[in-house]
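HOLO CASE FILE
Compound: pyridoxal-5'-phosphate
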Amino acid sequence: MTQSAFEPPRLGEPYLLTPGPLTTSYTVKEAMLRDWGSRDFDFRQMTTDIRTKLLAMAGDVASDYDCVPVQGSGTFSVEAMCGSLVPRDARTLVLVNGAYGKRIAKILACLGRDHVVIDKGDCLPPRGPEIAAALRADPAISHVIVVHCETSSGILNPMQEIADAVHGAGRKLLIDSMSAFGALPLDVRDIPFAAMVSSANKCIEGVPGFGFVIARKEELEAARGVSHSLSLDLHDQWVSMNKTRQWRFTPPTHVLAAFAEALRLHEEEGGVAGRGARYSRNRDVLVEGMRALGFETLLRDEWLAPIILTFFNPAHPKFDFEAFYEGMSDRGFVIYPGKLTVADSFRIGCIGRLDEHVMNAAVQAAGEVLAELGVDDAAPPTASLDEKQKLVA
Ligand SMILES: *Cc1c(COP(=O)(O)O)cnc(C)c1O
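Model generated. Tokens follow.
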């Protein structure tokens, strides 16, 4: 179907053009064909190597940080970070511009942690000056949490600007870099965050089953006794893992083995720069091809992360998202519904074991499905475009 440099999905599996779980390489899947004892020397060494490589990916040459893996999906690690590294009497500012920011506020509410929110709606980035003003106005705020790439719209938040505002005010920064880490730079030498979190099944292209927190050692030290939870206690997980090189509770052994292989492929591709370059090319080919069909992106070009793209639904009366989704699926591409309040939309991911040939084939499939539906122009409603014009951040 394509001249992709990568092996195609097997046995009629579709390409997952979604924000994760995503299409992984055959060797990543193959790495799961062996059973590991969680106390085996080799398995313990695997865990140690993974932690070391993730710290290197974050630019921790000074060994100021440590990496603590946590069982479960990414949200478990976000909750572990919030419950362990945000003191019980702290007030946190949450920067919200989509569903994942809202989820962080909800986690803090569940944990009984005092917090305030700057909510920018669906598609505007939080900016340095408004953050600085909020921190000036409320000296009780000690922590700020932000999502790196807000996967609900695909917006790339301006991390350096945000970090400068937070650190300029002497506050601590926590980052949900779930859908960005590994493909977009997040280096502690540029952005000396208190902690960040990501997971196995996004830009590092592993399979789902664990997340990880990269935190300053002094933050992990200070987290002793802070967590409300046993299984999500980062301090306990950290101390125990450093002492025994084992996980406190059953680790997802096969997932770790797959992740070790995913890290090998990541390195082979040229690390964060190489991975980011491939995803950027995927985005560019996708956006150009979809625009040629008449589709338009929700976001202005400067905020389009090379992770996932939101497109407005066409205004054409014959366009029906369910039928479009089915048609794409029949052609081997799983796309993602939209998550917006402002306009009807859908999303197409460009992360995973995919290259520009796959993106071209997806665009061609989209053209075929439109023709099948009798939609000769995929332009969005003018009202949607008017909304977009207003989005001058
Ligand atoms: C995927 C994702 C998460 C975690 O979602 P899970 O379903 O728990 O893995 C959190 N934040 C962002 C920004 C994400 O993209």
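CASE NOTES: The longest strand covers residues 65-71. The radius of gyration is 21 Å.
CLOSED: yes
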